[in-house]
Amino acid sequence: MTTRYTKIDGSSTGYRNFLIVSGAVAALAPLSALLMFTNGHYITGMNNQVPWGMPIVMAVYLIGASAGSLLLSAMSSVFGMKEYKPFSRMAALLAVLLIVSALMAIILDWGRPDRLFIPFFHIQPRSMFSLNAFLYSSYMALGLLYLWAMFNEREKLEKQLGLLAVLLAVLVHSGTGAIFGFVFVRELYNSPLLPPSFISAALSSGAALMILALYYTFKFTGRELDERHIHGLAKLMGIFIAVVLYFIFIENVTRAYAPKNYEAASFLLLNGGKYTFYFWVGLIGLGLIVPMILVLNPATNRSLKYIIPAAWMQLLGVLVERYIIVIPAQIMPLEFFHDKEITSDFLDGAYANYSVSPVEWAYSLGLVGVVVFGFAVAIKLWPILPSQANS
Amino acid sequence: MPVKAGALSIALLVMAFLAPLFYNAVSPASSAEPQLVIEQKGKCVKETEYMRRYHMNLLKTARDSGVREGVRLARHGLKGCISCHPKRGEFCDRCHEYSGVTPECWNCHTYPV
Amino acid sequence: MLELPHLSRITDIMTVDRRDFLKIGAYTAAGSMLATGLPAINAIASKTAPTRKPEESWAMVIDVDKCDIDCTACVDACHKENNVPDFPEPKHDVHWIRKITFKQKHVENGEERSLPAMCFHCEYPPCAHVCPVEATFVRKDGLVLVDKHRCIGCRYCMIACPYKARSFVSRHVDHKPTDNPDVPIRMHGVVEKCTFCAHLIDQGKEPACVTSCAKKGKGAMLFGDLRDEKSEVFELVRSGKANRIRSDLGLNPRVFYLGV
Ligand code: SF4
């Protein structure tokens, strides 16, 4: 049951073209960040009512996928699930690439990314951001070390590092959830359930990502793929989606129960216009329930024809979930008085507007490009893919 | 072929790092030391030598104590400098241009003309 | 960071719970020591002449009944004093103080009234708690200030502030000849807000909005030191007639309102 890993050959023109295209897409991220930095953020859709936009959505999303991949990668070494061994390297690599991209997403979105090192000199232990600066960077370093241990076949070290990495991944993503969950002034953020629900979403999107990464790399490199791996991952994905649904249900019911939250809850669930649509159709329907049924129903869960679209839906569904978490809370006006209507020329008391601007689209696309490009380069440089994915 | 490409990229990287050295080697020797116009000699908070080396530390301390503690060390802050050296172009900028540093002070603070 | 003893007075007066457990959060940022040059400290130590007393605790009381709905004296004065930029789009515009018009919900033809709202300089400011680099901090006399030399522009504070007191500078700002030279302008990419005119307070003056309200408005705004038992703000706060906005959040703002 030993798995052999090989580098890809990477001499075909297809590969070269892929590198060029994904590299160009990846370059969009620093380029649009440069635009934001030199012009100021008025070129984005973010404003004083909605200070956090697509870059933060992407950052949270990428961190989630990263934590999910790392947890999956550790399945074989830490939890002894040998059937996941063949793609543990792949998953660890993706985890590192995703966290790099997520850090880029956060830092380049600052108003002053040139003050990069200030967070390391001035620490504020009450701030989730300050704590996360250390969590994220140590997580990245640990991920690299873990990969190194795998490359050198140091099984014992791999196991220990894997365990550490699992703990850190859970912390990292809980910390990310806490960024929002701790904000007690906005009803749609404040929730103790955000950290655990972030982790389950991380696992489901991590599984989806792994299914897609396996499927497409094997397809393009012409290796033989044992479908049983995909089936196992799909089942995991289905289970985690169920957990995510449970968390979302509890969270919203709890919120909607308190009269002071009627407005916020009904904004999200009933009359929030496009946000309500995203919530019910994008997230609950297409993002969670449909893929869950596809991968858990015995009639469909043996066929890649259904699993691959389900994985795509779930991957995009979690992106919608992040959007639903980050944005609507800022769209809701902040109340000064519970019983009075307020207006001002600073748009107090009015629902804010946010639409993703072209710069932010380019930025988000670029961040994905960074991951894809990094992955394509790495599988040529290091033995990451199993030469044959059957155990 | 990959070996060659690798060597080439490393060589390029090294060249890029060394570029400033090459640039300085070929460009004409820098002009003479900057001359500052100092009208009120000997009135500064510290001697010239000290100021030349450490004025930024004084400014930073004055800045932090002013902003964060509300203790305004007027003589050691930008206002103190301005009170004796009315022309920024003949004072701050000369040395900063010479040594190639671009402090951000005047992006926000006003140097009265 | 958070040194409660000197701030506790505002809490004493209102006799709400002290939340002493927050002291756990108090600590010293050793990192900041590294950044300062030691020679400079030596140089300054001998000649320091503090311009302020550490025991002050500022507060403001605003009488809403005296605030005219179409008077903007405080806003104009503030934006002039502090060189607050004017950006074309309202959603990006920077506001340090703004006039808020309010009326009772669910009634027809409710009476419209207005009040000025700025940064309320909370005793437990969520913005300072979430700021990753302590760019937003609480000064000894209770003012919550932004150190724009340090702010990285992450905007977490804008998410955390319940009063929308903060604005992000999203456009380039140039020096203008009409600028007040005592207050710096700003570079884009940082967050800013009302400072209670800390530069004026440090000279022993009152904030620009208060001065202007007394001169051009009806004198609705009062500013003073809560430690000074003879001051008018102290009297009003102690009388219990003054309310704070969203006191349910427990942030203990330093701005009190009469008549809402
Ligand atoms: S934007 Fe500036 S002041 Fe606000 S939390 Fe970030 S660093 Fe602190």
What does this structure look like?
The complex is a heterotrimer of chains A (391), B (113) and C (260). By secondary structure, chain A is mostly helical. Chain A has a single domain (9-337, 348-382), classed as Formate dehydrogenase/DMSO reductase fold. In chain A, 69% of the residues lie in helices and 2% in strands. Chain A has 13 helices and three strands; from the N terminus they run βααααααααααααβαβ. A two-stranded antiparallel ribbon of chain A has the order 1-3. The mean pLDDT of chain A is 91. Chain B is mostly helical. Chain B has a domain at 33-108. Chain B has five helices and no strands. Chain B has helices spanning 2-26, 48-69, 78-84, 92-99, 105-108. Chain B is elongated, with a radius of gyration of 21 Å. The mean pLDDT of chain B is 84. With 260 residues, chain C is of the alpha+beta class. Chain C is globular and about 40 Å long. In chain C, 23% of the residues lie in helices and 15% in strands. Chain C has a four-stranded mixed β-sheet. A two-stranded antiparallel ribbon of chain C has the order 2-3. Chain C has nine helices and ten strands. Chain C has a single domain, classed as Alpha-Beta Plaits (2-Layer Sandwich), CATH 3.30.70.20. The chains are: A mainly alpha (391), B mainly alpha (113), C alpha+beta (260). At the A-C interface, helix 4, helix 5 and strand 2 of A face helix 2, strand 2, helix 5, helix 6 and strand 6 of C. Strand 2 (340-344) of chain A pairs antiparallel with strand 2 of chain C. Residues 130-131, 133, 135-136, 146, 151-157, 191 of chain C line the site of iron/sulfur cluster.
